[in-house]
Amino acid sequence: MAEVPAEILLSKRVQEMFLDDEPPPAPYICRDGDTVVEVSAPLSPVPIIDLSLFSSSSTPCTKQQQELEKLRSALSSWGCFQAIGHGISSKFLDKISQVTREYFEQPMEEKKKQAKGVEEFDSYGADPVPAAGQFLDWSDQLLLHVYPEDQRKLIFWPERPESFGGILEEYSLKTKIVTDLVSKAMAKSLNLEENCFLNQYGEKAQYLARFNYYSRCQRPDLVLGLKPHSDGSGYTTILQDEEGLQVLKDEQWFTVPKLSEAVLVLMGDQMEIMTNGIFKSPMHRVVASSERERISVAIFYTPEVNKEVGPEDDLINEERPRLFKKVKDYADTHWAYYQQGQRALHTAEV
């Protein structure tokens, strides 16, 4: 695949390559004339859901029911939605984006204080080296376990910017409130008991934060910031500062528009399992740009370790038989397949 081993390439970040005016090396080149149609923002009709309609006691029942039906439709067809009315102010979202940008704009020596080996997850760098024949993503990342607190590896939490840790802590707490609200709304949209999904995730559900930096690239037509994949989480919340994230639907890549007040909520494989295939875990990717760098912040929400999850019983009937068996630590299975450029959902099928 490449003359230079991926381990060596991963020791030099894509941000460095761009600043050194280097073209993308062979292991990053993955696009050779995509045949799938792309639909640019703002034409992408990614659904918008107002979460405030689910949290306010003053919302008329008919209005709330309409939004629940809209939510179910969005997750059954798109597998994602743009969440507004989530209770996190635009000012604070800007603060998250700003501290993320400040972190990645630091000298490389400062960021490498959190550097990781090629097989590790937490800290600064890139994904562990993929299987032979798989290309590398044109991006840098900082990956940190946030909850449960005993899973935090504080040695990798940046000391600079000084405000980073406090802002991440606050954003994580706010995100937990959002996931509670979303989980209950999803259950009610399917006429289930509102806490059923929260019970499946467990009291020690995992929250993993990933800060992404998508550097500019001389040849964005040859690389991808993030390879096509579905998430192995329950679901993921994504804050993006610029457009670049694309979702696959009906054999077309739809660019997710940038809405200043919105957070994208995107289903993972485990949510498709829990809903017995009603909600979809969509394939998505990130494209590169020659004109601007881009950042995003993703929080992966995943069931607690060793917690067995499976389709809700009330979603299994003669019309819709059981599609998936119960699984445990599915995220680990997902990762093994992801490293080979494959989906893992079939491993959970009945």
From TrEMBL:
It holds the Pfam family 2OG-FeII_Oxy. SUPFAM superfamilies: Clavaminate synthase-like. Coiled coil: none annotated. Belongs to the iron/ascorbate-dependent oxidoreductase family. PANTHER family: OXOGLUTARATE/IRON-DEPENDENT DIOXYGENASE. PROSITE patterns: FE2OG_OXY (PS51471). GO terms for molecular function: metal ion binding; oxidoreductase activity. Transmembrane segments: none annotated. This is Fe2OG dioxygenase domain-containing protein. Residues 204-303 form the Fe2OG dioxygenase domain. It comes from Dipteronia sinensis. Keywords: Iron, Metal-binding, Oxidoreductase.
